[in-house]
Amino acid sequence: MSSPISYFFSCVFVIIAHGAMLFNAFQNGNYESVNDVITLCAAVIGLDAAYFIVMPFFKQRTYAVDFMLLLILNMSNIFQSCFGGVHLDLKHFITCIAALVSCRIGCIACRNHRWIQDKKKFVWVGIGVLMVVIFLFCGSRSMWIDLGFMTIQPSEFIKPLLVLACAASISEQQNKHKVLCFNVVYENLILFGIVAAVILFQWWCRDLGSIPTFAAIYASGFLLRICYPKAKFSKKTLIIAGSCVAVAGIVAVILAPPYVKDRLFVDIWSDPDGNGYQQSKALIGIAEGGWFGKGPGEGFLHNVFAYESDIVFATISEEWGLLYALMTVLMLLVIVAMPLVNPPRSYYHATMCAGVCAAFTVQMALNIFGSCNMIPFTGVTLPFISAGGSSMVTSGLMIGMIAAAQSPVFKNPKPKKSRKQAKRRTS
Amino acid sequence: MKSIRRCQHIMTLFLLAFIAGIVTLTVRINKQAPFYMSHSENYELGKVYDRKGDVLFDGSGNGDYPNNHFIDVGNLIGDDKGQMENTLVAQNIDSLNNYSFNSGLVKKGGKAAIYTTLDHKANRAAYDAFMGADGCAVAYNYKTGELLVCTSLPNIDPSKGYAGLENMKSGTLMQKAMYRTVPGSTQKVSTVISAMEIMGQSALFSKKFSCSGYYINKSDGKIDCHNSWGHGEQNIQQAVENSCNPFFAQLVEDSDLPLDRVKEMYTKLGYAVSDDETEAEVGYIDIDGIQCEKASTKLTDSSDFSTQWGCIGQGKTLVSPVQLMMWQSAIANETGKMTMPHLIEHVTDVNGKTVDTAETSYSDALFSSSTASAVKQILLTNGANHYQYSIPGYNVAIKSGTAQVKDGAEENALLVGFVDDTKNPIAFCVVLENKYSTPAVAENIVTTMLNSLCG
Hints:
The complex is a heterodimer of chains A (427) and B (455). By secondary structure, chain A is mainly alpha-helical. Chain A has one domain (4-411). Chain A contains 18 helices and 4 strands. Chain A has helices at residues 4-28, 34-54, 64-82, 90-110, 113-118, 120-138, 154-168, 186-204, 211-225, 235-255, 258-264, 277-289, 312-320, 322-336, 338-341, 347-371, 389-406, 419-426, and strands at residues 145-146, 151-152, 176-179, 182-185. Chain A has a two-stranded antiparallel ribbon with strand order 1-2. Chain A has a two-stranded antiparallel ribbon with strand order 3-4. Chain A is globular and about 75 Å long. With 455 residues, chain B is α+β, with helices and mostly antiparallel strands. Chain B folds into 2 domains: 47-127 and 139-172, no CATH class; 178-334 and 364-454, Beta-lactamase (3-Layer(aba) Sandwich), CATH 3.40.710.10. In chain B, 34% of the residues lie in helices and 22% in strands. Chain B contains 14 helices and 22 strands. In chain B, strand 9 (214-216) and strand 10 form a beta hairpin. In chain B, helix 5 runs antiparallel to helix 14 (442-454) and helix 6 (188-199) packs across helix 10 (259-269). Chain B is globular and about 105 Å long. The termini of chain B are far apart. The interface between A and B is large, with 49 and 37 residues.
């Protein structure tokens, strides 16, 4: 259990960090009325305080992940509320709360690895259901389902399920079956089939940005599989797998539709008003911001499409400075790297953490490097920082998995005795 | 536990790859930020100043300047509009970028600037002395290399824009001092230096050739002298003062002056020397990013008509006024080494901090000190005997030239030399195009320029 003293000082640290940001917004920010700043302060500090009170009700070995998550979410809340002018972004604030809740759900659901492993068929079914939903309501028309009051991106929810699918089938590695002259693990084939189906489906849906994330989740699971258990890395397998990936990549580029090729090979500075619009503006914004930024709400990037999601790294850099944007990324890395400091207590949890780490790093890389023109711009979200409820909730779920790995449950829950049985024993 | 560690290794792999990417991104942004800023609407260039703080270029575009304030330096200083590439601003645009990533965007008040060595007042005086005629004037301190005057006509005030570009006179957008022109008899200075290095001073001074107004060379080519009555028998000093073409034609034909050695000497001086078999590539002298063309000539045979004219200053010989002036520094300093000219005195960054300061540099020795001293004496004598009234008040070493251009339809007047004065060590070159079509006189331009610089 975390000691009360460390818990208290962690609370103080989070409050000071958010307080410093809010002070910066007050001092250097662009706002019409000071009430806007006060409202934002109340929301941020209020959420901090509420979470500090609620957290101890969930008994855990450590609250490090929770503190980090709260720190990042309220940073994100402040960033989003300051873009273009300081005022509370209520929608983003609500999605931050949703992320905290989903983190808690993810943590509770994954604490007992035996329980969640038993539910792996439900995970497969869940992925299938989501694909059917995408097929029926999204397809190649749109990535979102519009519910009127909110939009949902169903493909986001496949990510945590895929992490679970990769982790849940890890224990089956010993169950090899002889098929022709091959030793086959059925679950591996099923998993491969699921991933292939998801990727092809995303291709069909023209949601190419999320394919690398799915591929990374599977790649981490695959790497763990080929070295399980007590095994050496099979160089032959690695070479074959690597070659397959390379061939698949080349074929994908060749077969890619024209709009994808345009994005892959665009020279943003020769087409700054076309395919290079967002990236060139993002880079100009970063340059104008310098290390220390122009001030909260003082930037111009809030006039650019997807400033709060796809190019959010640049928008933060412009207003808060590259230093702050890099610190935010560092926070995200720290929370994902937490299992390196506090090792997961079971192999199942470790596999899950590896999947989450793969998903987060690839998604962060796609967002940051894509918007800065280092790699093709795909338009994926930056976990917890970009606006978007679906991304927030699924990212929360995945961080919940990391939190679960820090405070797992090993014992099987004891079967509850009925009152009649108890009476019999006493008599 | 081993399996868990393996998971951690894979996580570490992902995290390290990402961190490597972030580090690369940070370095890249830091390096390329000025380029990104050049596409920004908030992009603002700094100013260019002359040596006394007068503005020569204002990147903000908001300054209030007198009409045609920049007309004398327009095609040297240039601007960022992309019409003139071989200019100070175009070649040093990064130094003028009122931005650094460390400081971020500085709205109004960035102090990025280039402080030049130019004297705007003297430059304007020289420009006005042309009285509207075409040509160029260039002067620099032959001790320090500071370029003091560099103007050419026709010129443009870039702050007024480029409307009517197609109707502008040829050469408006180029600083003529940086480009090769026919040197006329100023070329004889190079020939004297070469002859002195090859033959030795005593042998050269002992040479005497006769001029009867023309000379029929060994290949039956007729080399005319500007004095149709002839100069009679002369030595090298008299030939230089008289600028006698037949003397130099006979000197080139002389067996004591093998053409191969002349070619070597010319190449050492910086000429791209071609002959019948080879075509030499013209090089450039870099003056703070501005490319100045190096000299070129074609020498085939010592008795060849064109070769002899090449050594006299016509034929295929072309030299830029700046290079003519630079050779004068090697003579004036009596070292045989050229003082390399520079235009930028120092540069300040966006915060006003000096980031780059000029230092005087010299070329390798082109010829010996004794040759430099001897040639200096010849030119000083020429100045004392022929220019003490037309360029009064200055102890000038000088050589004039008349270059026939456009197939002889026009004649350009050239004056190249230096002031032999430790307080005002100024070397100069003036080219007055089509001298008979203008009331302007090259000597007056030199005098006006020197008066402004030394006054």
